[in-house]
Amino acid sequence: MNVENDIQHKKDLFSLPYVKDQLEYWGPVNRAFADSFLTMGYNFIYQHFGSLDSKFLKSVFSSFVEIVQNIAEYNEGSFNDNSPHSFICLKDSGGQIVIETCNSIKPEDKLAVQTVFEKVFNLPREELQGEYKKLLFKGGSLGLIMLRKLKNSEVEYSLSENDQGEYWLSIELKMNYGNT
Predict the structure, then answer these.
(1) What is the pLDDT of residue 129?
(2) pLDDT attached to residue 180
(3) Of 54, 69, 106, 155, which residue is least crowded by CB atoms under 10 Å?
C-alpha cells in the first residue's frame, strides 16, 4: 500500500475526510515532533486567520498547544520510544476554527482517562472557574478545564475501541470566530 492510500485508509477508519487547506498530521507524536508541529500550527493560525482578533488567535494557539503537548506527553510517558500514530488536525470550518485529535490509549489507562474526562465534562459551566482554581494548587486536568471554559466554543470527546481492541481518545474543539 502506498503512503497516500495508507493515510486515506487510516482516515477512513475515523470518517475523516481528505481535505486541502488545513494543517493535519497522522503519525507518531512525541515532544520533539510536537515542538515542530506547534511551530507549523502557529504559522498556519496567524497566516490563515490573521485578520481575526489577536486575543482570540492567542486562545486558539494556546488551546492547540495544550492539546498537542498533552498527546506528546502521554505518548512518551506511556509508550516510551515507540509512540503510537496520532491524528491532529487544525482547520477552518467556515465560521469556526476546529482542532481535532485521535490518540491511542493503553488499555490499562482507559478507566483513568475516562474518569478524568467524565469528571470535567460533568461539571456545570458555572463551576469550572472554581474547579480550575482548586486544581491550580493541587494539580490536575487544568488544560481540559481551560478548553471547557473557552467562550464561544464547544469541546467534545469520545473514547472508543476499534476492531483490533485498541482504545482511542478523540477530541474536537470548535471555536467560533464570528463572535470575536
Answers:
(1) 83
(2) 45
(3) 54
Position 8 in a domain: yes
Regions in the chain scoring below 50 on pLDDT: 180
138: Cβ contacts below 8 Å, ≥ 6 apart = none
**Count of domains observed in the chain:** 1
For the residues of 113-163, what is the DSSP string, one character each?
A: HHHHHHHHHHS-GGGHHHHHHHHHHH---HHHHHHHH-TTEEEEEEEEE-T
Which residue segment(s) compose the domain that 22 sits in? 3-104+152-176
Q: Establish if 36 belongs to a structural domain.
A: yes
Q: Is residue 12 part of a domain?
A: yes
> Under the phi-then-psi rule, with left for phi > 0, alpha for psi from -120 to 50, and beta for the rest, what region is 127?
alpha
Nearest to 24 by CA among 114, 88, 105: 88
Taking the CA atoms of the chain, what radius of gyration do you get in angstroms? 16
